[in-house]
């Protein structure tokens, strides 16, 4: 029987799930690219990135060497592990409710 | 919404975003490097013959076309082998969604470039125009993959397209080259400059900027 409490609540929120999916797929995203891809406002995106950062799932990097500072985000090893576990639990739920 | 529907909806979101964010490299850097070396060797041989003769190399009939078709075939086979090995390492099939996407994007410009280029050589004996068509169409094929290709490949597409246009302009404005008894020498040099040097630069740039791998999408 699946224990639904195994679902990581930090990732389960749809916006954060989207952020984790993009970062896990491509490795590293600039803030502006994430914003454009997800269609989120600056404030909303920052809030979710901070939540993921506090959980240790996402790491922020700032590059001030160019004319404009550039902030990029990447998934940490802990984030990768949590995201994989989250997807495994989702798949297990679907399998358990749709046997055969 | 039931738990199952909720889980399915979340999996759908994950899959859809992974497809959008997916990056597929249709040209393996080592294969590009090999193609570059072969192209430079072929162009270098022509250049050496020109220096020996103090002018154009001897006219060689269909040799020019076959020489470059063989280089294309060797590089293409090596590219497929390397892509297959990479796919196997990731536990994915060779003909993945990424490869299907890439083939759909690159086939039209490659087909146009191939047919026009070979036609220009076989029927009009115009080698320079043929290789310029190859260069521009190859550049457009790479640019057609811009939405899912790594930046390096998109940059390579721009380099080929712009270089092809600039070289066309230079060729069209230069009557001396167009009035040559035959144009296999300049055509080989353009191939060496574009398919040779540009591919070597691309392969070098990819090797220098290699990053740790990201998590891959499940099939």
TrEMBL record, chain A:
GO terms for molecular function: DNA binding; DNA-binding transcription factor activity. CDD domains: HTH_ARSR. The keyword Transferase does not apply. Residues 6-91 form the HTH arsR-type domain. Keywords: DNA-binding. Gene3D superfamilies: Winged helix-like DNA-binding domain superfamily/Winged helix DNA-binding domain. The keyword NADP does not apply. PANTHER family: BSL7504 PROTEIN (PTHR37318). This is Winged helix DNA-binding protein. It comes from Prosthecobacter fusiformis.
UniProtKB/TrEMBL annotation, chain B:
The chain crosses the membrane at residues 21-45, 65-84, 105-122, 128-146, 153-172, 187-208. It comes from the Bacteria. Keywords: Membrane, Transmembrane, Transmembrane helix. This is Uncharacterized protein. It comes from Prosthecobacter fusiformis.
């Amino acid at each position: 029987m699946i224990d639904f409490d195994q679902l990581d609540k930090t990732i389960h929120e749809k916006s954060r799930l989207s952020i984790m999916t993009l970062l896990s797929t491509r490795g590293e995203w600039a803030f502006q690219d994430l914003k454009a891809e997800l269609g989120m406002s600056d404030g909303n995106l920052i809030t979710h990135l901070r939540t993921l950062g506090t959980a240790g799932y996402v790491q922020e990097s700032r590059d001030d060497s160019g004319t404009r500072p550039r902030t990029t985000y990447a998934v940490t090893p802990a984030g990768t592990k949590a995201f994989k576990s989250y997807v495994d639990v989702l798949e297990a739920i679907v399998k358990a409710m749709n046997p055969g | 919404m039931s738990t199952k529907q909720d889980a399915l909806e979340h999996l759908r979101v994950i899959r859809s975003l992974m497809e959008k964010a997916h990056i597929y490299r249709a040209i393996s850097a080592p294969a590009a490097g090999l193609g570059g070396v072969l192209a430079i060797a072929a162009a270098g041989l022509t250049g050496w013959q020109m220096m020996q003769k103090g002018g154009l190399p001897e006219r060689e009939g269909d040799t020019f076309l076959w020489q470059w078709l063989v280089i294309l075939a060797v590089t293409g086979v090596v590219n497929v082998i390397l892509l297959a090995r990479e796919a196997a390492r990731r536990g994915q099939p060779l003909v993945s969604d990424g490869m299907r996407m890439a083939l759909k994007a690159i086939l039209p410009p490659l087909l146009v470039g191939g047919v026009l280029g070979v036609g220009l050589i076989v029927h009009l004996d115009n080698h320079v125009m043929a290789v310029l068509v190859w260069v521009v169409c190859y550049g457009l094929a790479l640019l057609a993959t811009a939405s899912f290709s790594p930046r390096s490949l998109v940059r390579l597409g721009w380099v080929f397209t712009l270089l092809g246009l600039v070289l066309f302009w230079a060729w069209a404005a230069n009557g001396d080259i167009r009035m040559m008894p035959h144009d296999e020498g300049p055509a080989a040099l353009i191939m060496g400059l574009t398919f040779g040097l540009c591919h070597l630069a691309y392969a070098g740039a990819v090797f220098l900027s290699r990053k740790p791998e990201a998590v891959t999408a499940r099939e």
